[in-house]
Specification:
The complex is a heterodimer of chains A (about 120) and B (about 120). With about 120 residues, chain A is mainly beta. Chain A has strands at about 5, 10-15, 20, 25, 30-40, 45-50, 60, 65-70, 75-80, 90-95, 105, 110-115. Chain B is about 0% helix and about 60% strand. Chain B has strands at about 5, 10-15, 20-25, 30-40, 40-50, 55, 65-70, 75-80, 85-95, 105-110, 110-115. In chain B, the strands form two sheets. In chain B, strands 2, 4, 5, 6, 9, 10 and 11 form a seven-stranded mixed sheet that branches. The relative contact order of chain B is 0.32. The mean pLDDT of chain B is about 90. Classes of the chains: A mainly beta (about 120), B mainly beta (about 120).
Chain lengths: ~120, ~120
Amino acid sequence: AQKITQTQPGMFVQEKEAVTLDCTYDTSDQSYGLFWYKQPSSGEMIFLIYQGSYDEQNATEGRYSLNFQKARKSANLVISASQLGDSAMYFCAMIPHGGNEKLTFGTGTRLTIIP
Amino acid sequence: DVKVTQSSRYLVKRTGEKVFLECVQDMDHENMFWYRQDPGLGLRLIYFSYDVKMKEKGDIPEGYSVSREKKERFSLILESASTNQTSMYLCASLSLGLAPQSSYEQYFGPGTRLTVT
């Protein structure tokens, strides 16, 4: 069984600072994918970034990067130069590759950017 | 630019009613998922399907069933709605390339906020 853990229920960060949102996972699968999503107050789930377990380089998408440490089973999201619009819930998720692909989410981190 | 649609944004039902939540995707994705989202609990997987007529229980399937007769449509059914099923319901569809890989395509619907009174 797979499990995603996000230990930070809430975070407050000053605007323009970098922020790291923690995510650890537990799986016995050798091949899997890791996702981060943003959910603003409007409710829609917005895909941010994806990392495959066999990808040798950390994924980056604009101001988002994923700090993937496979041995530690961690996949932290780093947001550089935070903006007020980054205030939202952030969810980490994982899916095993091959067979029945069950996409499992963590409980989320509420990020608030302070002007 | 339609990707994933859900039949209702808001729904109010009475205890004991049978409730159908519909999800349709237009991307020919194999995998579809139903989640419920509650404060402090994140997204919890109810059921998922990786092919037509195939379904798998997620983490909290009790009180729910699903149907996938066509690839594009995945329905969530509450056989006899109860007040503890008041929640936000999110549908998602996903397509992954062959493992190991770095390709994917995944979208969520806008959600259905269900209230059971």
